[in-house]
Amino acid sequence: MRKNDVGAAAAILRAAKRVVALTGAGISAESGVPTFRGENGLWRRFRAEDLATPEAFARDPKLVWEWYDWRRGIISGVTPNPGHRTLASWEKRFPAFALITQNVDGLHGRAGSACLHELHGNIWKVRCTKDETISENRSVPLKEIPPHCPDCGALLRPHIVWFGESLDADVLGAAFDLSATCDAMLVVGTSALVHPAAALPFRAAASGAKIIEINPAPTPLTGEADISLQGKAGEVLPEIDELLRKES
Q1: Active-site residue flag, 117
Q2: What's the domain count of the chain?
Q3: Residue of 84, 108, 117, 120 marked active site
C-alpha cells in the first residue's frame, strides 16, 4: 500500500455525498472473531455447514443452540476495532452514509453504526418460529437451551440466514438500492466471492460510483476497483480518516 493510494481514496470520499460501505469477515477477524467455517471451524465433530441449516434445527434444536451459545460466548469477549469505529464516525461526516455488512457478530452496532443493514442477520437477535417476531437476547450463556418465546412458548431460533435460506428481501433490496445510488463504495474485508453481496460493488460501479477496496489480499474485485488498498481495515480506515480530517 502506497501513501498516495490512501490519498487518492481520501480524495474520492471527499468529493462524495452518498457513501456506502460493504464489510465482510475480515474486519471482524481483526477484533479476534474467528471464522466458524472450514477446517478451523470445527466444533465437536460438526462443521458450520452441518449446523447452520433449517434441517439441522428441525432435527435437533438443542444441538444447534448449544453451538450458537458457544459462538456467542466467544464473540462476547471481543470489541470493535478502529475500523469499526471509523466507519461508525463517518455517519456524521458524510451527508448520506450507510453500512451493509455480511457479518452477524453485532460489532458494527456496538461501535455506534446506526444506518446498518445486516445481510445475514445478527447472532444477538432471536426470532420466534411461530409469529416471526424478532427481539434481542444478549444473555451469555443462554438461560435456557433451546430458548422459547416468552409470549407464546414457541421455539426461538437465531436470527441468522442459514444455508439454503434466502436473504431478507427488504434488507437485500435496500442494499441494492443504496449501491445503485451511491457516489462511492468502500468494500472492506470481504472475499468478494459470496453472492448476492459480491454483486453489490458491481451494481455500484455500473451506476457510476467509485469503488475503494480494502483487504489484506487481492480478490476477484481488485482488478475492477478504482482504488485497491492492501492492508488491515483497522489501520487503513483510520489513515483515510486522518487525511479527511486534515483537509476538511
Answers
A1: no
A2: 2
A3: 120
Q: What is the pLDDT of residues 33-92, one digit of tens each?
A: 987 665 555 566 678 888 999 999 999 999 999 999 999 999 999 999 999 999 999 999
- The answer to whether 202 and 224 are in contact (CB under 8 A) is yes
Count Cβ atoms within 10 A of the Cβ of residue 55 and give its class: 0-12 exposed, 13-18 middle, 19 or more buried: exposed
Task: Write the Ramachandran bin of 158: left for phi over 0, alpha for psi from -120 to 50, otherwise beta.
Answer: beta
Which residue would you say has higher pLDDT here, 39 or 114?
A: 114
Q: Report which of 89, 105, 27, 113 is spatially closest to residue 242, judged by C-alpha positions.
A: 89
8-32: buried (b, 16+ CB within 10 Å) or exposed (e) per residue?
Answer: bbbebbeebebbbbbbbbbbbbbbe
Residue 200 CA to residue 208 CA, distance in Å, equals: 13
| Co-location of 112 and 185 in the same domain | yes
Last residue of a domain, one of 160, 182, 215: 160
pLDDT digits (tens, 9 = 90+) for 139-192: 999 999 999 999 999 999 999 999 999 999 999 999 999 999 999 999 999 988
In the structure grid, which three cell numbers stand for residue 155, read together? 421455539
Instruction: Give the domain extent around 203.
Output: 3-32+80-120+166-246
